[in-house]
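Appendix B, example 12.
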Amino acid sequence: MNAKSGGGLPPVAVDPLVLKSSLLAMAGLNYEGVVKVETLAGGEENALKFTVSKGIDIWNMSMTVKEAGGKDVVISSDEGSKSWMDADIPTTMYVKYLKGNIFGIIPITFTPESPPPINVPIVFFTNVESAMYAQLGGKLHIPGYGINKTNVK
């Protein structure tokens, strides 16, 4: 499947948000295929489209976003804490890549060129890194919410 993202998704940043976590668990996960997202630069990128209907848990979360002007903005949780997205609010994610150890065992990387072969409704990954163009819905709770800006050359 390779279709437009649909759902009124506005243009997305050229540099996706990068999420890192020691453990990412998702319930009610549905892989919906490869879609095209429009970037703010006017181009199109392929993305994996996932929906999650029963919640997301993220341990030791760190998210990095590129700001105009070359700074990285890092948003992180307290070390050892679990961040989460509410189980009663569906979430849709447009993902450039998702890599980690699926079920804590098998190293795997999902991309639009190498998408998930099957739908697994409940899954967890360890040593996670994921780049997301967009996330719609959901409400993220971050214990010890902190922001750090760093210059990037």
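The longest strand covers residues 122-137. The two ends are 37 Å apart (CA to CA).
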